[in-house]
Structure formats: C-alpha cells, structure tokens
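Weekly puzzle thread! Below is a chain. First person to post its structure in token form gets bragging rights.
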Amino acid sequence: MRLANSDQLFRILFHLLFWGIWLFSPFLDRDLDSERGKFFLNVIFPISLTNIPLFFINTELLIPKVLVKKGSGHYILWLVILIAVFFALQTLMREGLSGREPQALTGRRGVFNIFTLLPVMFAAAVSTGYGLIGLMSRQDKARQAEKEERLQSELSFLRSQISPHFIFNVLNGIVYLIRSKSEQAERVTIQLSELMRYMLYESDGEQVTLEKELKYLENYIQLQRLRFEDDVQIDFEVNGQISTQMIEPMLLIPFVENAFKHGVGMIESPLIDIKVICDEKSLVYRVKNKIAPETPEHKDRSSGIGLKNVRRRLELLYPDTHEFSVQQMEGWFEIALKLKLK
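Winning reply:
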C-alpha cells in the first residue's frame, strides 16, 4: 500500500511540476498588458493546454493498449497519427485565435507550422518516455509480486511439511512412553497439547517472538526428557537477553529433532548439547550430539526433510543475514546457526 501511495504521489508531483513549468513559465518575464503578453495569454496558452490530452492519450491508451498488446509497429503508426491530429488541431487553433485567416498566412505558414509542430513532438516524446518508464516499473513490480507469491507458496509448503514431520516423530516417542510408563500419560499429553497449540496457532503467522520459539523448543526438550529420563544426557542452555526479537516460527526445532534422531540408540553415553546465545540483534544457536562411529552422517541426507527444509527456509527468509554450518568430527555431529534478528 505504501509503495502504491508513493507512486501516486510521484505522478501527481511530476504532472504539477511539468505542466506548471510548461504552461506558466512563459509569463514570468512578460507584461500581460503588452501585445506579446496578450498573444501568449490568448493564443499560446490555450494551444499548450491541448498537449495535456495528447500526453494522456499516449500514456494511458496507446502504450498499454497498443504497444503492449500489438507491438511497436502498430504503436509507432498510431503515435504518428496522434501527432498529426494534434498538429492539425493546434494549427487551426493558432490561426483562429490569432485572428488571421489561413489565406493570409501564405508567407509565414511554414514558420507557424514549425513552432506548432515542435511542442507537439516534444509532448509526444516526453509522454512516450514517461509511459515507457511507467510500463517498465509496472512490469517489474508484477514480476516481483509473482516472485514473492512463488516464495510464499514455497514457504507455505515447507511449513506444511514441518507439522506432520514433527508430529510423526513426537508421536513415536509418546506411544513408547505411555506404554512403558502409563503414570506419565497425563503429563505427556499436556506437553504435547502445548506443542500442538504453538504449531496450529502461533506458527501460522510470518514471524513470532524469540521467547515463544524458545519456549516451544523447551517444551519439546522436556518431552524428550520424560521419554529418555537418565538414558540420555540433555543439556539445554540459553544465554543473553530475550526481549522483542522476532524469528521465523519452527526454525530451531529441526536441529534438535535431528540430534534426537541420530544421537540416541546404539551410542555409548549419549549426549545432546543445545546452546542458545542471543542479544538484541543476533542469535547464535548450536546443537551437538554424539554419533556412533559406524554410522556415517550421510544417513541424514536420506532420513527426511528436516535439515533440508530449514536450510531452504533460511535461504528464502534470511538470504544475507545467516550463517549455517554442519560439521562431523571425532564422534560428534554439530549444527550451528548464526542469525541476524529483527
């Protein structure tokens, strides 16, 4: 809406300035009571007014209706016709308003025609340039709008992938937990309801507060603690001040999902370490987990959509404001993200 208003303001200011200079500048240094001043007021000024419809016929009719739809050849033909029509009109007006009959202008008609033709050509040239700039601007905005629509569609698709993917992983753990320790069923159900509420209602918007995203992450980690108890060491640490920073919803959870997927099981003393460091403008997020020596990390490439999904979302939403790295060394797998926040 702001962009549309700024474009409209630009057009208004352009026309006020352009036509103001053209129509009224000849009178700035002339005495309107003199013969020459009366000539400009009674003849030149009315003739100049006819350049306004010429301008708008070209910009609002010929360029969008003829040039765009039928091509440059048809446009040039109609522009020549338009110039000829207004040249003839202004010639007749000049002859009529000056009080002279066409028969009396035999010796000076060529001079009159030149002085009449030049303003018509100038108005046609300026209107063509103005119209072409406007056309290119509209086409560029249309391309940008189409691009944004495609990106939004892709983001919506990526988000729609996250929810069932996440629910599938969580439910697998919950089923095991409820079957093995039924006394935890109520607590687990409450935790899951909080996670589902966030997914359904909070993550539907474009961005959420960092505080909500971290609370959601904490609920998920707590759910995993209930599931694994002392079998898996889970360290979760948040350092820094969290105030009004905004972040893309459900951006951090795939890192932890991946850690629990590949960091437990046939691993001696499994450990998952999650650290968040943030200030008013940036976030540093790191997730480490142990991996079994015989389990190469290429398993993750075929294990689901989690990291691929988040990597693509980062490319779309934070194209120049993030650093994303994945490393595997000495039995550890680490995912790190540095992100500039708004």
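Puzzle host: Confirmed. Bonus trivia for everyone else. The longest helix spans residues 109-180.
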